[in-house]
Amino acid sequence: MARAATSQRPKNQGAPYEPVALEYYNSAKHPTCWAFGSASEFLISEVLEKTPVKGARICDVGAGRSVALKILGKRLVDAESVWLVDSSPKMLSWNTVAHTPSVKLRICEADEIDRLDVDFDIIVASLGDPYNTSEFWRAVRKSLRAGGRCLFSTPSFEWASRYRCVAAQERAGWALFELEGGATHFVPSHIFEEPAQLEVVEGAGLRVQSIARFRADQLESAPPKLAGLPPI
Asked: CA–CA distance from 215 to each of 35, 118, 163, 189 (Å)?
């Protein structure tokens, strides 16, 4: 089974997104997050907008400010239920869905979504590299009904290997956030070469149907961490 790249563990030992949550969507402070988010939304919308959701049970795992809700838009009323799952309460609080009974918010680790005891038709995992592990993919297999689909996106291995291995402070297998106030914070980021990624997914008993890519030059503007680098 493929494993994530190893390195010396940062001091915060891969603490979750809670310390980052309140500023994560600040495009001026974190332009790379904005760029990856825009690319991921484009790729997932290409599939989700064409997918029937009438009576569907949908899970947006590691949801943060949910891409699934944004893409579904008015079609949200067609779904039986949409579960927004995140291990960070602050990340989940970006969603204002108090008067939307079909939307369920749950504090839950990504690799424990099978404990929700729901057979999902669609699982959305936008920028799922923080939890891109064999345990997560086994939970996906257990949670999907027969014929169900998982829409997963991640930054490219080409970008991660070329940037994180040469830039000061960066660590292979981790994502670095420079927070307001000057503190730094690391979160896990498991990004594989394509054959290894396929091995992780298929090793959980799933089948990869298609792969799509988004190039950095498709962005309106590329932040410093992406400028001049291969496809993201």
From this structure: 11, 35, 16, 20
pLDDT of residue 99: 75
Which residues partner with 86 through β-bridges?
107
- Mean pLDDT, to the nearest integer, of 190-217? 93
Place of tokens 């947006």: 60
Is 69 buried (19+), middle (13-18) or exposed (0-12) by CB count in 10 A? Answer: buried
Q: Read off the pLDDT of residues 28-82 as tens digits, 9 standing for 90 and up.
A: 998 889 989 999 999 999 999 999 999 999 999 999 999 999 999 999 999 999 9
What is this structure's pTM? 0.88
Cβ-based neighbour number of residue 151 at 10 Å: 23
Amino acid of residue 111: D
Contact between residue 106 and residue 83 where contact means Cβ atoms under 8 Å apart: yes
User: SS3 for 171?
Assistant: coil
What pLDDT, on a 0 to 100 scale, did the predictor assign at position 222?
Answer: 63
